[in-house]
Amino acid sequence: MTPGAPDVLVSDVERVFREEYGRAVAVLVRRFGDIDVAEEAVQEAFVAAVRRWPSDGMPPSPAGWIIATAGNRAVDRHRREASREDRHAQAALLHTPDEPAEEGAVRDDRLRLLFTCCHPALAPAARVALTLRLLGGLTTAEIARAFLVPEATMAQRLVRAKGKIRDARIPYRVPGEADLPARLGAVLTVVYLVFNEGHTASSGDRLGRADLCAEAIRLGRLLVELMPDEPEVTGLLALMLLVESRRTARTGQDGGLVLLADQDRGRWDRGLVAEGQALVRACLRRGRPGPYQIQAAINAVHGDAPDAAATDWRQILRLYDLLLTFDPSPVVALNRAVAVAEVEGPRAALALVDALDLDRYHLRHAVRADLLRRLGRDAEAARAYEAAMARTANASEQAFLHDRHRALTRPGEAEPGGPEFGASEPDEIGAGETEPE
């Protein structure tokens, strides 16, 4: 074994976990019909991988190894827990080689699990939390920070949600065509919030998690395939593609956060921009606006501008005015205030921000700090930056805020510039119809 090889392999296990946890859980839920059994078995499989892969090497199909190992662990657990009379029946159930083909337009384990997590019998916030846990592999602590609630509260919420699925015998399938519209809103919200967690992680050393964004976009494409005539489905996919197009430009060479105004637009993925804008135009032709379509249109306006100075902020402000009629949430109002600052000036925007009840939301304090800085009220701006730093667990955001704070308290060491957080970035977790319980 070469020095340092185990560390590399542990990082490989972590990468496989991020990329394949949701798929593995979904496969085992389909097979065993029990979320707790699936989660525990997959977690045990990854623990086994940490022990074995450093010495045995990475298997040819890491995801297949995890799913097979987890399946064996689940079978062993059923055998241990089954009574003697039940063992033959359990064995027959667990080793059924072929399952009947599922009817419906989409045959995908993760999409089935997504609709299960978004069943109307579950509370809206529980749907999002459960999806982030089961499909995204986030820890309870990470989800709690995303929802701005204590970890113990989130743990209880997850236990209750899984218990509800079990006790109510909620089916593990994509609903029939007649039931899809009623289930759509919750599913779109969940996909969007998974994307938001990937766009800006609630904690950790990295600004975002590309794997979660990729998973959300994959699910978005499947939903468009399933419901091509629903403009909000198309709007959500357009929104995610337009935001994702800026991923590589959002961080500098040192991994630090780069604001929209300072990004090198030559690094934007023009293929994603073009695809997203085409979807926005398709939505406009339908004439049935909704919040995801409007947010996509806001990001399309940014995509039209060759540089930050050319941004049509008046059009963006009009779109935020329309968005507020669909989603009058304080987070949308905060994003609108950023546009107001560009059109009417920081003083008008500050009055709007000060009226918002978002004390626990770090971006509210970050936006407020930038507005105060632009008004020359440096001492107040420094305190607002301190409040923002205290309310985010994302290391990249903390480093950015620290630099802005230092520029005020130690003049000459750093030069602030450009609109602060919130300028056209996607609404963070907590917005709209999924406010914490």
From TrEMBL:
One example GO MF annotation: sigma factor activity
Membrane-spanning parts: none
Manganese listed as a keyword: no
UniProt KW keywords: Sigma factor, Transcription, Transcription regulation
RNA polymerase sigma-70 region domain segment(s): 17-82
Domain of life: Bacteria
Ranges where the DUF6596 domain occurs: 183-282
Residues in RNA polymerase sigma factor 70 region 4 type domain copies: 114-164
Compositional bias per record (Low complexity), positions renumbered to this chain: 414-424
InterPro entries tied to this protein: DUF6596 (IPR046531), RNA_pol_sigma-70_dom (IPR014284), RNA_pol_sigma70_r2 (IPR007627), RNA_pol_sigma70_r4_t2 (IPR013249), RNA_pol_sigma_r2 (IPR013325), RNA_pol_sigma_r3/r4-like (IPR013324), WH-like_DNA-bd_sf (IPR036388)
Composition-biased stretches (Acidic residues): 425-437
A Pfam entry, by short name: Sigma70_r2
Record region (Disordered): 402-437
A GO BP entry: DNA-templated transcription initiation
Annotated family: Belongs to the sigma-70 factor family. ECF subfamily.
PANTHER family: BLL6612 PROTEIN, BLL6612 PROTEIN-RELATED
Protein name per the record: RNA polymerase subunit sigma-24
Origin species: Streptosporangium carneum
